[in-house]
Amino acid sequence: MTLYRAPGGSSRVVVCFEPGRERMQGFEPTQCPRFAERLGIDALTVQTARRDWFLSAKSDDLAAALDRATAGYDEVTASGFSMGGYGALLYSRAARVRRILAVSPQYCIDPAIAPYDPGRHRKFARIGRDMPCPEEWGNPGLSGVLLFDPAISADRQHALRIGAAFPLLRLVALPHGGHPASGVIADIGRIGNVSTMLVQDRLDPVRIRNLHREARRNSIRYSFNLASAALKRHGARVEPLLRDVALRGAPQLRLEAGLALLTRDAAAGTEALTRLLDENPDPPASWARRIEQALDAIED
Fold first, then answer.
1. CA dist 109 to 20, 40, 199, Å?
2. pLDDT (tens digit, 9 = 90+) per residue, 66-110?
3. Domain 2-216: assigned CATH number
């Protein structure tokens, strides 16, 4: 944990649980969230060295440290995206959290509890310990919002489970926002607006949806997510859009578009992915695995 104190001190603190990263092989440098600096409040960032959903032999120590770190504040808020959203919910009681912004969090990834999320079952096995549901350790009386993309089946089901366990949370659907669901808003640099709403107790689902609508007008990410959802039924119509994203999107989006193209046109998909790899000589190891798996599926 790292505590960033506002100049002159503050009676408020926001606790930010980091999301999972593409490569998690230790701790990375952290910094004070810009919205906290702008608002003049303290910020406490919570990190983990691996994709363990903040669960380890030292979970009790983390809870105790959060309790100590937040004891002197009049108000504690928290935010977390994906894995970080689970962590923020799980430790909300220990951290004295009153209000939360959770974006595409998981309820649990244990196959026995979340059979609807098979893509994370291998990650659960690597955690190597039981995974509590967030209300077991957290504060079910939390208020706040949970943002999710209803087009992603697993994320939708996680949101519904969390909504039932934390009844004061408002679920806000951001269709084709992706994972995390705030991605389209973040692309235009407005996610700080939502974080400011959290701290100032002005979380407004209508305003958040309007931000999403505004952002999606010129969003390559939104176009890709929409095309991916329509691919099975309207493949021929969305294929040109996939080609466009594979050519001019951000690297991760270009990867996703190239993999999607492989299922429609193996030659076009291979060409797009080859171009991407040529332009990114040191890609994440996961890219090679995913491309290999996609090619094997085509051959089968």
1. 14, 36, 29
2. 999 999 999 999 999 999 999 999 999 999 999 999 999 999 999
3. 3.40.50.1820
